[in-house]
Write a structure and sequence with these properties.
Elements lengths: L3 E4 L7 H12 L6 E6 L3 H8 L6 E6 L4 H12 L3 E6 L20 E3 H9 L7 H9 L3 E6 L9 E4 L20
Parallel strand pairs: 1-2, 1-4, 2-3, 4-6, 5-7
Antiparallel strand pairs: 6-7
Helix pairs in contact: 3-5, 4-5
Length: 176
């Protein structure tokens, strides 16, 4: 059973990203491909995939429910992983716009990912992570532009054995 691929809304804001995502899907030729995409982009995605010879199972999602729907579908399919494709290479140690020295985190445990999601990291969803952990399904955060680094950040039961992995902030919020 193949992975579930979630195309994030951001991909459809950039023509090059859409072309790159289609190219990546074409490279999966021969694989069973399960693609989850924003419902607002049904027409553009289907027209781009029209000439594809690979069999694709596709589902759409409404704003705010993509990560959860991807996790649920992966459970239904018995998929080994959810691949969340976006414009960024993965999860960083800090916001690279605020800290240019930020680095990609190659691996996180489910627990570490849950902590970052609780601290405001928008890339992660606590409900989806819980479901993935319960079923031993990995989460791969990757960019459609980073074909040289195909897995980006991997979230699984093992993670990596580094110390502090990331710093998260919630803008304009004070915590007591």
């Amino acid at each position: 059973m193949g992975n579930v691929i979630q195309l994030t809304h951001e991909i459809f804001t950039d023509e090059q990203a859409v072309a790159s995502a289609i190219d990546l899907l074409k490279k999966r030729s021969g694989d069973e491909v399960a693609v989850l995409f924003p419902s607002a982009h049904v027409e553009s995605l289907f027209s781009a995939l029209a000439g594809l010879s690979t069999w694709i199972e596709a589902r759409s999602y409404e704003p705010g429910e993509g990560k959860r729907k991807a996790a649920q579908w992966a459970v239904e399919r018995g998929a080994p992983a959810v691949e969340q494709w976006s414009l960024v290479e993965g999860l960083y140690t800090a916001d690279p716009a605020l800290l240019p020295a930020a680095e990609i985190i190659e691996a996180l445990s489910y627990q570490e990912a849950q902590e970052l999601a609780s601290a405001g990291t928008q890339v992660l969803d606590r409900t989806a992570l819980h479901l993935l952990e319960q079923h031993g399904i990995e989460l791969h955060l990757r960019s459609v532009f980073a074909q040289h680094h195909p897995k980006g950040t991997v979230v699984n039961a093992v993670g990596a054995d580094k110390g502090v992995k990331a710093v998260s902030c919630i803008s304009h919020t004070a915590l007591d």
